[in-house]
Amino acid sequence: MNAEELIKKTLLSNTSPEEFLWLKNTISSSQQNALPAGRQEKLLQIAFVVVPRHIKKTNIVLDQEIKKQFLNAVHFVPDGWTVDKMARVFIILHFNSDNEVKYINSLNTLFETAEINELAVLYSSLPFLHFSKSWLPHAKEAVRSNMGLVFDA
Fold first, then answer.
1. Rounded (10°) angle between helices 83-92 and 3-14
2. Most CB atoms within 10 A, among 4, 12, 84, 137?
């Protein structure tokens, strides 16, 4: 199972049917082929920002089996994450990575405009992002940060 499938499985067991339906519909609407250029990224960026309006901020519950699966898939276990944080990472995983430059620019826009909680999610999502070397400056920035949430991410 890959990271996206694990996160989806975890969200299914930690969200209400209404919350998961909102998340699913939001991602589906961003993936329509008829969308004009750049519109998919804009919809996902907006969804990333409005997650707290639709998804609760309670702690994720992970059983031992799912912890093992996360460890095997991404060498990381999202212990202590909240449901809204995982939902935001799930949205990030749906950015189109076919074009490296567009992908990096879309996510950099989120880094540049994020408030503190969004920044913490973005830094927590680094292990899941494509083109890992491109995110090294952000990882260095997080380590040097004096903002507790960002440093802890």
1. 150
2. 84
Burial 103-137 (b: 16+ CB within 10 A, else e): bbebbeebeeebeebbbbbbbbbeebbeeeeebee
- Taking only the tens of pLDDT, the chain with its 153 residues reads 888 999 999 999 999 999 999 999 999 988 876 667 678 888 999 999 999 999 999 999 999 999 999 999 888 899 899 999 999 999 999 988 888 999 889 899 998 898 988 988 998 888 888 887 776 666 667 665 555 555 555
End-to-end alpha carbon distance in the chain: 24
Length, in residues, of the chain: 153
Residue 140 CA, chain-centre distance (Å), reads 19
Under a CB-based contact definition with an 8 Å cutoff, are residues 66 and 6 in contact?
A: yes
- For the full predicted model, state whether its pTM sits above 0.85: yes
